[in-house]
Structure formats: structure tokens, C-alpha cells
Amino acid sequence: MPEIAKLEKFSEDDLNSVLVGYTSSRKYTVEKMETNNQIVFKLDLVPLGELYIKRWFLTSEVDHYRRIVPTGYSIGAYADGEIVGMAIAENLDWNRSLFIWEFHVKEGHRRQGIGALMMNELEKEARQANLRIMVCEAQNTNADAIDFYKYCGYSIEGIDLHYYDDLDSRNEFAIYMKKIIGD
Asked: DSSP string covering the chain, please?
């Protein structure tokens, strides 16, 4: 089993080795119904006719990650000296939350319990810091990640239909998930 340890410094190469993207056969669709007295959002998990392939390329986020990794809430998973998982997280003092900006396990190392170990370590750190909630975000097209977060005790608590640069917000939108860990 890999060793879970705090990230001492941000390495763009390490991040790029684990942050490659995902393939999905399912996605959440959204329907928004609005009247004068009510706004209702409905999410449906639907199969896709063909595989959805998402590849990431970080740009402006890198500078933010360089600033927050030294604060001590980001972790890595290491197997035989190689990074196989990474979580970049930030303590948001104003609402006592741990916001997980990036959470990835390298392809070939997924579904082996590494993500759960990382999530447990993040929760332990958040509890020690007396935080009340953990927050993560996933794309509606990343159903496996949403399933994983649910497995770890998170629940869907919000959506942002225009978080991504996507003119058709029904294709890709942000799903926010939270786990309450304190009061």
C-alpha cells in the first residue's frame, strides 16, 4: 500500500503525472424549472451513447497551487518513491472549510484504495484543524468521481451551470459536494 504524506512543495511535473483526465460512460444532466415562487433543479444520471474523454491542461491554476501547497493541507500518495496520487487542498478560514481543489489518482493505480486513504488523511487533517466541512467539485461528466465522493461520505449540495467555459451549460457543469465533519 502506498505511503500518504504531506506535499512539501508544489511540483508541476508531479501534478501533471497524475492529473491526466478521465473517461466516462455516464453523466448527470440538469433540468432547471423556474416560476415566480419556485426554482427547482433536477439532476439525472444517464448513460452516454459513446465514451466521453476529458483531458486536462492546467494554466492559471498552477500559481494558486504553488501558494497553497506550503500551507500544509495538500497530500501525495507514493509507491516505490513515485507519486501515484495527489490532493491539493486549502483551509478556508472564513467558513472553516477544507476546499479540495484537485484530487487525482494516477491511471493504473485507481480502484486500489489509494483515493480512500488520501481522503481519510485529508479528513484527519481537517478535524485536527477544527474545520467543520470538506468541499470538492466534480464535473457532471465525471460520474465515477461523484460515485467515489459519495462512497467517502460526501453529498451533492450545489451546482454551477456556468462554472466552465462551455456555451451549452447542459453539457459540462460543476457539481459541488460536501462532507460535514464538525460543528
From this structure: -PEEEE-SS--HHHHHHH--EEEEEEEEEEEEEE-SS-EEEEEEEEEEEEEEEEE---STHHHHHHHHGGGTT-EEEEETTEEEEEEEEEEEGGGTEEEEEEEEE-TTSTTSSHHHHHHHHHHHHHHHTT--EEEEEEETT-HHHHHHHHHTT-EEEEEETTSSS-SSTTTS-EEEEEEE---
What tens digit of pLDDT does each residue of 109-120 get? 999 999 999 999
Please give the mean pLDDT across all residues of the chain. 92
Place of cell 453539457: 171
Reported confidence tier of residue 168, pLDDT bands at 50, 70, 90: low
